[in-house]
Specification:
This protein is of the alpha/beta class and 327 residues long. The chain has 2 domains: 159 residues, 3-Layer(aba) Sandwich (D-Maltodextrin-Binding Protein, domain 2); 116 residues, 3-Layer(aba) Sandwich (D-Maltodextrin-Binding Protein, domain 2), CATH 3.40.190.10. The strands form 3 sheets. The protein has a 6-stranded mixed sheet with strand order 2-1-3-10-4-11, sandwiched between helices. Strands 8-5-9 form a 3-stranded antiparallel sheet. Strand 6, helix 6 and strand 7 form a beta-alpha-beta unit. Helix 2 crosses helix 10. It is globular, with a radius of gyration of 23 Å.
Length: 327
């Protein structure tokens, strides 16, 4: 350091050096991340589909990271809150569903967490492909037949969902919006009772994740009309997409991803993301997830952030236009 420099210049230079060191320290500190077990909070009941899938992925991630990945089931908003306020050190992650991270915050402004401000994306894990099915009593075999019936008899067809603002409720809202139809929503307290009444014929149709209705489709108790994703499902390759069967542009996926608390060092996020992507490309992990009815769908942190923004834009428009809210 040149001691002939003015004191103010020497202080400025010293501040710059210290700032550079401060930036370097977190990167150095996380060079060996993780040095202890990593916790993943799953805001679903133990044994639920999302919990089971995360345990498969977490086991392989732990092997890749050289530390155990501990799955902690903390159902509902309290679990998401716990992850949001956890120390941003990379040792607490959250399994977030698209509903919790995109649609519910758009429907309910009073939620005690903000998915954009409180979290940083790590990477998408999987998607569950929803499928539109009808009860055989409708005598409907195709999407076009269903829409023709719905237009001929507005507000006579009933559809079930797992509750107001649930993924399957919003999926049918989008179907109505894009097809110019109007049907009656019958919300239930959970997916299981909504499917039970659909199979019993108390309601005529519903959009549900494939695993929840696969058995009923196979036995002929429900008629599959189309999958909601942009591409056909590997689980039911003979069933067309809703888009190709009569509603061009229709696309809806139920997705799950990993998130870290906001301000988690980028080095830790990057390492967790790399382990996640590698785990999801493992044939054994892919096979296990497909057996559960889930389709591996790895992304980088940046890709997940862009994917979420697209989702937010799409659902914000629909929710506003159809005046939907969930308080």
């Amino acid at each position: 350091m040149n001691h002939r420099q003015p004191l103010s210049q020497r202080r400025s230079l010293l501040s710059s050096v210290l700032a550079s060191l401060a930036l370097a320290l977190p990167m150095a500190a996380y060079a060996e991340y993780p040095e202890r077990p990593v916790r993943v909070i799953v805001p679903f009941a133990a044994g639920a589909a999302a919990d089971s899938a995360m345990r498969v992925v977490g086991k392989r991630m732990g092997e890749l990271l050289g530390q155990s990945v501990v799955i902690e089931a903390r159902p509902g908003v309290p679990g998401i809150q716990a992850a949001a306020i956890a120390a941003p050190d990379g040792y607490t992650l959250l399994l977030g569903a698209g509903s919790a991270m995109v649609t519910h915050p758009l429907l309910n402004s009073k939620l005690p967490y903000d998915p954009i401000k409180d979290f940083v994306p790590v990477g998408r894990i999987l998607i569950n492909v929803p499928i539109l099915t009808v009860h055989p009593s409708t005598n409907v075999k195709t999407i076009k037949e269903l829409l023709a019936l719905a237009k001929a008899k507005p507000k006579t067809l009933n559809y079930s969902s797992s509750g107001m603002g649930s993924p399957n409720h919003l999926a049918v809202e989008m179907l109505e919006d894009m097809s110019g139809t109007s049907m009656i929503h019958v919300p239930y307290k959970g997916a299981a009772p909504s499917v039970v009444d659909l199979v019993a014929g108390h309601v005529q149709l519903g959009i549900n994740a494939i695993p929840s209705v696969a058995g009923q489709i196979k036995s002929g108790k429900l008629v599959p009309l189309g999958v909601a994703s942009a591409k056909r499902s590997r689980l039911l390759p003979d069933v067309p997409t809703i888009a190709e069967a009569g509603v061009p542009g229709f696309e809806y996926e139920i997705w799950y991803a990993l998130f870290a608390p906001a301000k988690t060092p980028s080095a830790a996020v990057a390492k967790a993301s790399a382990a996640l992507q590698t785990a999801l490309r493992d044939p054994a992990v892919q096979s296990a997830l497909l057996e559960q009815g889930a389709e591996p769908a790895p992304t980088t942190s940046q890709e997940l952030a862009a994917y979420m923004q697209q989702d937010i834009t799409k659902w914000r428009r629909l929710i506003k236009e159809r005046n939907l809210q969930l308080e």
